TrEMBL record:
<feature type="domain" description="Clu">
    <location>
        <begin position="6"/>
        <end position="146"/>
    </location>
</feature>
<protein>
    <recommendedName>
        <fullName>Clu domain-containing protein</fullName>
    </recommendedName>
</protein>
<dbReference type="InterPro" id="IPR025697">
    <property type="entry name" value="CLU_dom"/>
</dbReference>
<dbReference type="Pfam" id="PF13236">
    <property type="entry name" value="CLU"/>
</dbReference>
<dbReference type="InterPro" id="IPR027523">
    <property type="entry name" value="CLU_prot"/>
</dbReference>
Length: 146
C-alpha cells in the first residue's frame, strides 16, 4: 500500500503560526492609532540632514508596521477568522475592523444592482423553499409519502 506521507516535510514555523498568529493585533499594550503615528512622524523637524534621516526612519518604521498589520488582517478576513461588524447584512457588504484598520471586499458592480441581486437571490431562495413545502403538502394530502 502506497501512502502519500513522503511529500510531507516538517516545518517548525507552521506549528508556531497556528499558536501565535494574531492577524496583525498588537499583543502587548493598546492598539495603535496609525493616523496619529504617521502624522506625528511627518511633524518631525527636517531642516538638517541628521533630522531628515531620523524623520525618514520613523516614517519607514510606521509604514512598514502598518503594511505588516494590514496584510495579516487581510489574511484573517479572507480566512474568516475575523468576524464582520455587520453580520446581518449580505456577505458582499460585510465590513471588518481589526487593529484599527478598516477592511471590506471590493464591489465590482453598481451597488444598487448588487443589492437588488442579493435581495432577489434571497427572494428566490424563499420561493424555492415555499414551493417545495407546498409540493410536499400536496403529496401528503394525496396519500403519497415523500
Amino acid at each position: 500500500m502506497d501512502f502519500f506521507w513522503s511529500d510531507h516535510k516538517p516545518d517548525a514555523a507552521r506549528a508556531e503560526d497556528a499558536l501565535t498568529l494574531s492577524y496583525g493585533i498588537e499583543l502587548i499594550g493598546m492598539q495603535r492609532d496609525w493616523n496619529e503615528e504617521l502624522q506625528s512622524c511627518r511633524e518631525f523637524p527636517h531642516s538638517t540632514p541628521q533630522e531628515r534621516i531620523l524623520r525618514d526612519r520613523a516614517l519607514y518604521k510606521v509604514t512598514s508596521d502598518f503594511v505588516d498589520a494590514a496584510i495579516k488582517g487581510a489574511i484573517g478576513v479572507i480566512s474568516r477568522c475575523i468576524p464582520p461588524i455587520n453580520p446581518t447584512d449580505p456577505e458582499c457588504f460585510h465590513m471588518y475592523v481589526h487593529n484599527n484598520i478598516f477592511f471590506s471586499f471590493a464591489v465590482d458592480s453598481d451597488v444598487e444592482q448588487l443589492s437588488k441581486k442579493c435581495n432577489s437571490d434571497t427572494c428566490s431562495k424563499i420561493e424555492n423553499t415555499s414551493s417545495s413545502i407546498k409540493s410536499s403538502e400536496k403529496a401528503t394530502a394525496n396519500g403519497v409519502k415523500l
